[in-house]
Amino acid sequence: MTLSDPKLLANIRIVLTRTSHPGNIGAAARAMKTMGLSRLVLVDPAVFPNSQADAMASGAADVLAQARVCATLTEALADVTLALGVSARRRDIVAEVLTPAGASARLLTEAQAAPVALVFGNETSGLSNEELSLCQGLVTIAANPNYSSLNLAAAVQVLCYEIRQAWLGHAGWPQPEMDAATGAEVERFYGHLETTLAELEFLNPGSPGKLMLKLRRLFARTRLAREEVNILRGILTAAQEARRGARQARNPGMQ
Ligand code: SAH
What is the pLDDT of residues 44-56, one digit of tens each? Predict the structure, then answer.
């Protein structure tokens, strides 16, 4: 029998965004280590490092010591090819909602090829729309509908437990379906899209409104392959060139 590969767990990142209570960071580190996960990323934590975090981490001090602190979620997901937001069901978001077990299978499959992430929200406000727009799917822990909000570290424990059970249950995962684009590649595409839409005067840079957020959400509902990002950017470049050509034809003196 082939053993489950520890590299898969090392490629799964637990990302905590804007955590208010340092004790939760420590408890999350402990929850991770009990299940064999070690990559903790903190996005703009209110207080870190901190003695309460150390106390709650107990024997998982190494996970805290290795935790990476990032200023933004975009930075935390730059090299990630699959990011799943963990959130109590949000009726306003029309996205595929995964169970923790379903999410675990997806993450382990993709972790064979690249780093992947589970993104948890702030204790009071949860994940913002902007944060969710950087994720390609939503994971919900089916809980009591009258009281469905788990403590942050408890939610981390549930997900890490499911990942471990899935990991133990399968030695071999199918190969990922595609060569997925990383967060940074997708961000560069959004930047290119925004510039092009401004050049086409479809978007007013002075008041972009919610257009870019809506477009991000549209693309976030699917996972983009690296090749698809290249095709989309090729289309944008062609549109930019056509627009510049048309302008020059109208104003021949213009550079
Ligand atoms: N009032 C917040 C609760 C945040 S709890 C809200 O409505 O979102 C802190 C974090 O724990 C959440 O952002 C989420 O990542 C996770 N969490 C708590 N309960 C959850 C549940 N039932 N399903 C999925 N994630 C949950």
Answer: 999 999 999 999 9
